[in-house]
Amino acid sequence: MSFRFPDSFLWGGAVAANQVEGSHVSDGKGLSTSDAQPIGAFGHPVERVEGDFNIKDVAIDFYNRYPEDIALFAEMGFTTLRLSIAWTRIFPNGNDAEPNEAGLAYYDKILDELEKHGITPLVTLSHYEMPLSLANKLNGWASRDVISMFEKYARTVFERYGHRVKYWLTFNEINVTIHQPFTGAGLPVDVDEQTRYQAIHHQLVASAKAVKACHELIPDAKIGNMLLGAILYPFTCHPNDMMKTLEQNREWLMFGDIQVRGYYPTYMTRKFKEMGIAIDITEDDKELLKETVDFVSFSYYMSGCASADPANAEEANANMLNMVANPHLEASEWGWQIDPVGLRYILNFLYDRYQLPLFIVENGLGAKDVVNEQGEIEDDYRIQYLNDHLYQVGEAIQDGVDVMGYTSWGPIDLISASTAQMSKRYGYIYVDRDDEGNGTLERKRKKSFSWYQSVIASKGEVLK
Asked: What distance lies between CA 149 and its chain's CA centroid?
């Protein structure tokens, strides 16, 4: 390619509070919905009992070890770190009269450390967690009352950190509520479609309120949405497969269309009618939705196919989604198909659709890393995966797509969101802990550590 990424391009990694911090009830923190999912986002929520085991209760102990970890990120050359704030550190029950100062002070220290190393924070307000008490007492986002609680939380952190955080995201992979209602919105896993889409509407209104508040309180900041980028190709060129692909892509594009354009697309009017769904959308809601985002961010791990005749196609193991396997692609150990060109495709696809800057805020390879006899981790498979995807990002930039940056998922090994496993590793930094919680938590640089360091230092020129 022989291409140098723009000087303004932000290089880094992405983590989530509930997957790295641990200290799940320390310093006044309340329980979150993630704390009630000991086997990951695919699992049914459980009641927490004192002394029970949830690997996320300690996670990788980022809560206490953040100075060491951020120093390692800086050593790689990170110019940005995507992280999330745990809502329950700030408002333990969601509806508390006053914020928890200990929680606010903790993130002050994180931001101090990032500032010391010259790393720009990109902060997600809600990353697969909300106060568990709101899920238990109010049925999560099914209650319109949660909108004002989220707005209060958002305004609190904007006021506290607005002078030092200039990039924000509202909800992580907001479209996941369609597929995993408890993970996405604190809803029962068997919730009906009417309730599910009403809860989604409340989240979209809350997101718009956060955008409005951010623009008011931090005029020089940028705030974006975040989609689970689930681009689908037609399984064949049969017209029925083409229409099926259009319909299934719209399931996740709806969230981008509303947050970028400021209103529900007409294709959803027909869908709601055919599903027998009547969303309660007030006139105030319609005005609020016009508060649109400044940029579009998304995760991308894999593509898939859509078919009007599933009997002729094999289902793919996917990131909480329903997809048909692409016979032209290989897959990871967890069955996620690998499609680097798909990243270039989705970048062009989204830029053509929205004409807003794009930010790739998750992309990576989960794999079972092995420490060899020399104590090293030779993760060439991860290097190959990331190289091939970043090469396609460079191609998309040359296509004319405005790409703000790239934060690979899991720059340090963390707890898998989908399976709550430690053995599904993504990081450039190895953490000594297994799925049963055993290990020293010692950090160790993998081979990919120095590779990513060279990519950032060369602004992508070493990619091939």
From this structure: 21
Measured distance CA(14)–CA(128) in Å, rounded = 14
Which helix or strand (DSSP H or E) is residue 157 part of? helix 145-161
Q: Does 334 score more than 90 pLDDT?
A: no
Q: Does domain 10-457 fall into CATH 3.40.50.1820?
A: no
pLDDT higher than threshold 80 for residue 253: yes
pLDDT tens readout for residues 9-33: 999 999 999 999 999 999 999 999 9
Tokens of 306: 């859509």
Domain ranges of the chain: 10-457
Question: The whole model's pTM is what?
Answer: 0.97
Q: Which token pair is 387?
A: 């190289």
Of 395, 416, 409, 401, the closest CA to residue 460 belongs to 395
Cα dihedral 45/39/91/194 (nearest 10): -40
Neighbours of 213 (CB within 10 A): 21
362 labelled catalytic? yes
Catalytic residue among 362, 373, 442, 461: 362
Residue 247: C-alpha distances to residues 98, 114, 140, 204, 455 (Å): 44, 42, 28, 21, 38
